[in-house]
Amino acid sequence: MIVNRRVSGEQPDEHDELEQHLTGRLNLPLDWPDEGGLTVSHAARIAVAATCDGAYNQAANGHLIDLFAALPLPGTTEGKHFWNLIRDAGGSAAMDIHPANMGGPFFDRMHDGNEGGVASRVLSFLEELTPAQRADVAEAIGSVLDNGTIGVAGRYGGELWLRDAEMSAWRVALARRREFETVDDRERFLEAWRRA
Q1: Contact call for residues 73 and 83 (beta carbons, < 8 A)
Q2: Does the pTM exceed 0.85?
Q3: φ, ψ (nearest 5 deg) of residue 112
């Protein structure tokens, strides 16, 4: 993964936790090596930036899993009825997220680092829905959300689920795009905005 954060040569007034850990536990001075272009302090900042990007992507994917977990489970009586209702309401678009087509491997792959599969399917599903289909799908989802714990029922609750799924999937897709961005890409972006 290419980190798109710019690491400056300036030392902050106060060291962050990772820098404190490296100096205290590993006995590494922040400016080591003296002649090196990349110091311990720089490495710590790169690690923090990479972790933030990865954590953001994982959080959005985790939220997508939570959204699907709020729906009836495939293979159960309620789940079979619900997912058939989604297929009928969403037409061919629904096959992007229907368990018969998507199934468990897509959710399993999230844990193995392939984090874009479910997000891309959710975005494809929502893009292909007509306004009437979206309303019908929202009604179907909303009908199962009000089980006494969520408290938002009907089409409104289903529409909230769809909007949340759409934004979460978009965040995952956007984070994955940044993985392929280079330092030159980021500098070109900054320079274009400086000259605007």
Answers
A1: no
A2: no
A3: -95, 5
Q: Which of 15, 17, 40 is nearest to 27 (CA)?
A: 40
Q: Report yes or no: 69 and 63 within 8 Å, Cβ to Cβ.
A: no
Q: How far apart are CA 9 and CA 39, in angstroms?
A: 9
DSSP letter at 3 equals -
| 111-143 pLDDT per residue, tens | 565 566 788 889 999 999 999 999 999 999 998
Alpha carbon distance 1, 97 (integer Å): 28
How far is Cα 51 from Cα 34, in angstroms, rounded to an integer? Answer: 26
Vertex 142, ends 137 and 148: CA angle to 5°?
Answer: 160
